[in-house]
Amino acid sequence: MEDNNSLEIVLQTIDDLTNSIVLDPLTVEPVIVDPVLEPELETELETELETTVEPELETTVDPVLDPVTVVEPVLDPVTVVEPVLDPVTVVEPVLDPVTVVPVTVEPKKNVFDFINNNEKKTLLSNVNNILNINKFPHNKLIFVYSAPKVGSTSIVSSLRIFGTDKFSVIHIHDEEMLKVLGHINGITINEIILYNKYLGKDVYVIDVYRSPIERKISAYFEKIGAYHFNNTDENVNKYNIQKIIKRFNKILPYLANGDHFIDKYNITIPDQFDYNKKYLLVKEHGINYIKLRLKDASIWGPILTNIFGSRICIVKDYESTNKPIKDLYLSFKSAYRIPRNLLDELMNCKYLKYYYSPAEQTEYFNYWLNLSTTNNDSYTPDQYKIYEELTIENSYIDYIQLHHYMDEGCICKACNIKRYSVANKIMTGNQLNQLDRIKHDEAKNQLMHKRVMRANKINAVIKSMPPPQKTRGKNFKQDMSNIVKGTSRF
Fold first, then answer.
1. What are the C-alpha distances in Å from 294 to residues 104, 278, 434?
2. Strands 102-103 and 94-95, how do they pair?
3. 480/426 Cα distance (integer angstroms)
């Protein structure tokens, strides 16, 4: 009997211990609570809570489960820990929706901070004068801020021809252009863009993506004489095509890299390019940033018409087939076969993977795979550095194009008259030629010539008219005599 009683006591003790084990709500670890001491702990806790200021509950949004769910922090039933607040800056942790690990987000830098620098503001005001921005008659300002050889010149001319009465257009590639063309130093293009937004202008920025191989070929031929072969384009046009191809393959990895929209605009980039609309429109800092692709040039007109609310047709501009090296360029396009190892490297380009859908990447790869050849080694980075140094030292001329637009943007009466004529020619599907370029001196001379021709035609018509017949004056006496005699016609 005693054994049974002892067994019952042991079982009751185990049962009591089991009931006293609970899970701590914060650590999710077992905690033993003594049932005997529990009333005293509750009394002590009530006393402590009466003298403790309860922290305000934070309302947080669960990004995974329910955007409206209010999740209250669970308080330790034994110890109340008050949050310690930073007296200056409170940075709240953002919960990662996947790992639920607090991630501290640094406060974003104010991109307009440079406005507080009076010296910088004065410099930017002078830049606006140099670029004639202060003279523009419209509040809408479009910066075509892109890398060279991506088709941006065509956009600039098209916007000018069809929208000069609605907005003003500035075309710029990099800060080097600011130095060479305007002797502008100490200012970035982004600062110029932001400054004009600060002044209250309606600012748009446009960039274009071009597939890597085509862009590299175009960049290579842009400076093939003056830069790569230290000769005139006319002389290089006579070179053996294999010599041109060999040089290109040696420097291919180092030509025309980077992307302004991703690398230079300092904006939030969408996770994916819009392959359906064929463009991106990101509004940040109150500025509209537009990204197009050269492969979609055939629908740029409708895209830009939709964005700007005014009809815009696209004009082809400054193609390599119109330049002195056109024969060499056409021969290169016909003969070039890309080494397979270089093709594989280019297919891993992060910009190509972003702007082209998987299907477009496959199509692009298959196209060039059919035009590929055996592997070929390019210069190493150190070798290319030496090549670049020697090339710059021996450069035939300091090469920056100044006159390569179909429309250079002058808004005088002569240029506007010619612009209207060219716009009509484009809309009716007529082919443009060199005489259709809208350059001030040429437009002014053409207008004067037209007026002289019109005056000459008028004079010729006047001279061809028969001389007026002479009519006699009134003879009152004779007329009255005729009336009396009844011979008058009246």
1. 39, 10, 23
2. antiparallel
3. 70
- Asked if 129 contacts 195 with a C-beta cutoff of 8 angstroms, the reply is no
Host H or E run for residue 290:
strand 287-293
CA distance to 315, 397, 410, per residue, from 302 (Å): 13, 40, 25
Distance CA 446, CA 440 (A): 10
Overall average pLDDT of the 394-417 stretch: 67
- Strands of 183-272 (E only): list them: 202-209
Domain ranges, ordered by start, for the chain: 17-42+60-83+90-106, 114-409, 410-461
Query: Could you give the CA distance from residue 106 to residue 92 in angstroms, rounded to a whole number?
Result: 10
Q: b/e per residue, 376-408, with b = 16+ CB within 10 A?
A: bebbeeeebeebeeebeeeebeeeeeeeebbbb
Residue 170 is which amino acid?
Answer: I
Look at the alpha carbons of 149, 155, 161, 167 in this order and tell me if their dihedral is positive or negative.
negative
State what percent of residues in the chain have pLDDT above 90. Answer: 46
Q: Is 292:312 a contact under the CB 8 Å cutoff?
A: no
Give the bridge partners for 31, in sequence order. 22
Residue 336, judged by CB atoms within 10 A of its CB (0-12, 13-18, 19+), counts as middle
How does pLDDT run across 171-211, given as a tens digit for each residue?
A: 999 998 888 878 888 899 999 999 999 999 999 999 999 99
Residue 288, SS3 per DSSP: strand
CA distances from 478 to 182, 399, 471, 472, 486 (A): 85, 89, 16, 13, 12
Residue 129 makes CB contacts below 8 A (sequence gap 6+) with none
**Residue 298 identity:** S
Cβ atoms of 19 and 34 closer than 8 Å: no
pLDDT tens digits, residue range 271-320? Answer: 999 999 999 999 999 999 999 999 999 999 999 999 999 999 998 865 54
Phi, psi dihedral angles at 94 (to 5 degrees): -105, 125
Of the candidates 280, 261, 256, the one whose C-alpha atom is nearest the C-alpha of residue 146 is 261
Q: Which residues pair with 247 in a beta bridge?
A: none
- If you ran DSSP here, which 8-state letter would residue 147 be given? -
Q: How many residues would you count in the chain?
A: 490
